């Protein structure tokens, strides 16, 4: 016969007073709702940061300025030919003037289409690994061919964006940790309140031979059920809201925003949040009740 079966049947409803249970369920629903949203924010930001690191680590842009178009094009051809021989370079592509004009149109208007307008020549370069040594060598190689050429590293001018995304990731992680602490505090308060409310019942259980561990199991069972019930409500709402925002991100058509789209593994983590919090609540309730009962003996 198990410990739970050895207890009188009425004692299994130790924390089943309706008003207290409903309050606990809705508190847990709010906690899990906010936790899942914070976790989604952190996971999306982490996904975006990793994508930026992979895509921009080895991406360079070579800029060659010159008033003489023929000389400029000759310099571009020399740089392209030299870089294509470099084993660290995976792709070299001169940027078409029409594309540059399109990019500059918001600032120059139709004047950017003027063929006589001086415009720098641009070359996109992708490195295999994007190591600092490779970037320095490619930069020196380009500047040896064209002394006035500029080599810009995409990761450098997107550093503020990367820093902002990292801040979002840290914010999400911090909120999840804060919610875990708050949930633990709520569980401890609920357990101690239950002990005070049902002190006479607990004394009767002790006289009938129940141990502190058996009484603690009653509390952890009730709290785990409340946490799972509230967690399911909160998680469903948070997952629905997250799915809505994910759909809106996909509709934007922005390459950077698309990097924040969650993967199936991320969704699995979000679904697991209420179960993790239920286990955490059970452990906190058990430790709190056992310690309190032993200290009162």
From TrEMBL:
InterPro entries in UniProt: ABC3_permease_C, FtsX
One BP annotation, GO: cell division
Gene Ontology CC terms: cell division site; plasma membrane
Ranges of residues in domain ABC3 transporter permease C-terminal: 175-291
Location of the protein in the cell: Cell membrane
Main localization category: membrane
The UniProt record lists the keyword Oxidoreductase: no
Keyword terms of this UniProt record: Cell cycle, Cell division, Cell membrane, Membrane, Transmembrane, Transmembrane helix
Key word Cell division present: yes
Name by which UniProt lists this protein: Cell division transport system permease protein
């Amino acid at each position: 016969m198990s410990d739970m079966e050895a207890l009188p049947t009425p004692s299994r409803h130790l924390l089943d007073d309706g008003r207290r249970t409903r309050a606990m369920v809705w508190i847990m629903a709010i906690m899990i709702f906010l936790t899942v949203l914070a976790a989604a924010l952190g996971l999306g930001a982490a996904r975006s940061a990793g994508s930026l690191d992979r895509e921009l680590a080895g991406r360079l842009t070579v800029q060659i300025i010159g008033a003489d178009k023929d000389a400029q094009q000759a310099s571009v051809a020399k740089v392209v030919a030299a870089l294509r021989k470099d084993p660290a370079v995976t792709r070299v592509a001169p940027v078409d003037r029409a594309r540059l004009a399109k990019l500059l149109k918001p600032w120059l208007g139709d004047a950017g289409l003027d063929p006589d307008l001086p415009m720098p020549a641009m070359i996109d370069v992708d490195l295999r690994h994007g190591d600092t040594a490779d970037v320095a060598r490619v930069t020196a190689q380009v500047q040896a061919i064209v002394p006035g050429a500029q080599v810009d590293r995409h990761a450098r001018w997107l550093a503020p964006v990367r820093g902002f995304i990292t801040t979002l990731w840290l914010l999400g992680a911090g909120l999840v940790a804060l919610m875990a602490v708050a949930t633990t505090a709520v569980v401890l308060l609920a357990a101690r309140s239950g002990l005070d409310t049902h002190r006479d019942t607990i004394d009767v259980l002790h006289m009938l031979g129940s141990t502190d561990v058996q009484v603690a199991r009653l509390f952890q069972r009730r709290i785990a059920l409340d946490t799972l019930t509230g967690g399911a409500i909160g998680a469903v709402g948070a997952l629905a809201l997250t799915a809505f925002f994910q759909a809106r991100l996909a509709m934007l058509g922005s390459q950077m925003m698309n990097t924040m789209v969650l993967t199936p593994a991320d969704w699995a983590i979000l679904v697991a949040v209420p179960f993790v919090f239920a286990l955490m609540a059970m452990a906190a309730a058990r430790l709190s009740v056992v310690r309190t009962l032993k200290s009162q003996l």
